Amino acid sequence: MAQHPLSKFRFCPLCGSKRFIENNFKSKRCEDCGFVYYFNPSSSTVAVIVNEANELLVVRRAKEPAKGTLDLPGGFCDCHETAEEGVKREVREETGLCVDSTTFLFSIPNIYPYGGLDIHTIDMFFLCRVADTRGVKAMDDAGEAIWIPWQEVKPEDFGLKSISQGVSRLLQMHVEDLANVR
């Protein structure tokens, strides 16, 4: 079993005390100032974009983790932005596409390894509508952008566990139903 991320936090972030101890599985407490720090998941977004030919937009990961595997556009939300704003920003950064509207589909908890730390996330999947799907290009941490017909989409080609699970869930939904989600 992986080491809990809180084990990396040795000092109280409020007063700097070394007496920063486990309070319970999801928190640590400072024995000097009483501050309790809760370790909660980070917000992450995932874009489901379908073009006029009923193909799914996927990207190939250019960086670890899971470098070289397929992914859906998306990423971590920034402070002071909504999940909807975050997914729009991530799509623009990774593909150059401008998202006109978003519809929440579902969420999946995930563990994202980063810098030697397991970042717990809640990955929120959004159906994203774009007016013009032409001109898509891989940018930022996307090494390639590809339109794949739904019948060729295979969950096992997606390297991150939550994305693979999400793609499986999307495939279980009737693809026609995605077009009707508003």
Please specify the SSE layout and strand pairing:
Elements: E1 20-24, E2 27-30, E3 36-38, E4 42-48, E5 55-61, E6 70-71, E7 74-76, H1 83-95, E8 99-114, E9 117-130, E10 142-149, H2 161-172, H3 175-180
Parallel strand pairs: 4-9
Antiparallel strand pairs: 1-2, 2-3, 4-7, 5-6, 5-10, 8-9
Explain this structure to me?
This protein is 17% helix and 38% strand. It is an alpha+beta fold and 182 residues long. Strands 7-4-9-8 form a four-stranded mixed β-sheet, sandwiched between helices. Strands 1-2-3 form a three-stranded antiparallel β-sheet, with no helix packed on it. A three-stranded antiparallel β-sheet has the order 6-5-10, with no helix packed on it. The protein folds into two domains: 5-38, no CATH class; 42-180, Nucleoside Triphosphate Pyrophosphohydrolase, CATH 3.90.79.10. Strand 8 (99-114) and strand 9 form a beta hairpin. The longest helix has 13 residues, at 83-95.
Short précis:
The chain contains 3 helices and 10 strands, in the order βββββββαβββαα. The chain is an alpha+beta fold. The mean pLDDT is 92.
Keywords:
about 180 residues; alpha+beta; Nucleoside Triphosphate Pyrophosphohydrolase
Strand proportion, as a percent range, falls in: 35-45%
- Treating each run of at least 4 consecutive H or I residues as one helix, how many helices? 3
CATH topology of the largest domain: Nucleoside Triphosphate Pyrophosphohydrolase
Level-1 CATH class name of the largest domain? Alpha Beta
Structural class: alpha+beta
Contiguous low-pLDDT stretches (5 residues minimum) are: none
The CATH H-level superfamily of the largest domain is Nucleoside Triphosphate Pyrophosphohydrolase
CATH architecture term of the largest domain = Alpha-Beta Complex
Shape: elongated
Termini separation: 41 Å
Element order: H for helix, E for strand: EEEEEEEHEEEHH
Strand order of the largest sheet: 7-4-9-8
Helix content, binned percent: 10-25%
For the record, the count of structural domains works out to 2
How many distinct beta strands? 10
Average pLDDT metric: 92
For the largest beta-sheet, the strand count, sense and barrel status come to: 4 strands, mixed
Gyration radius (Cα, Å) is 19 Å
